[in-house]
Amino acid sequence: MRILIVNPNTTASMTAKAAAAARAVAASGTEIIDATSSMGPVSIEGHYDGALAIPGLLFELKERQAAGYDAAVIACFDDTGLEAARSFADVPILGLCESAIATAGFLAQRFTVVTTLERSRVLIDNLVRRYGMGERAKVRASDIPVLELEDPASGAIGKLRAEIERALAEDGAEAIVLGCAGMTDLARQLHDIYGVPVIDGVAAAVKQAEALVSLGLSTSKRGSYASPLPKPFTGAMSGFSPVSRIG
């Protein structure tokens, strides 16, 4: 099977990191294809960035339809554009947050999501509650701008570890979820340090995508994820019109 990893921000090094994490866990018969958005923010930190990242995400999904993919993973822990992508696509679309907390729920009664900035913490806390895990999970911010995760000299890893240690000491956390795609390469190292499950959303989403494809299941097109109704879109959005077969 072919799984597309789409980074909805425009930083190619983050795409490469997510793709490497995906390939590390993919089954032998799974091909990982990666794509970086060609338009939008260099990192996604909060609602404004997320909203402006969605057109680029949908464009990448559309552009790669001809080559074909069996499922796609949106490589942002905010689950940026997930609902729109599921309405657009005829294959399973997985988000990092939803996949990671579902996986954590199999492994621990209580867990903590450790993310980057406070604005992201609020957004992710809302997602966790929406996904039904609000009573079992806490979300913490480690005060790390996303792009600092790309800089070994930034001190970001120390801030992340300090927040994980507070989560274990104060939250009763039995597992840790890494709340940013930029943290994906740290999961194994942090597991070895703290001795608890550390869940990376990219790895979790890839394995869940493989399972859905193997089961022959895809997103329901009845109701909320039905394909968009044909209508013209105007201005800069004209290429996204369902008339142009984006749905």
From TrEMBL:
Listed Pfam families: Asp_Glu_race (PF01177)
Xref: Gene3D superfamilies: 3.40.50.12500
Family affiliation: Belongs to the HyuE racemase family.
Protein name per UniProt: Aspartate/glutamate racemase family protein
Name the species this protein comes from: Rhizobium bangladeshense
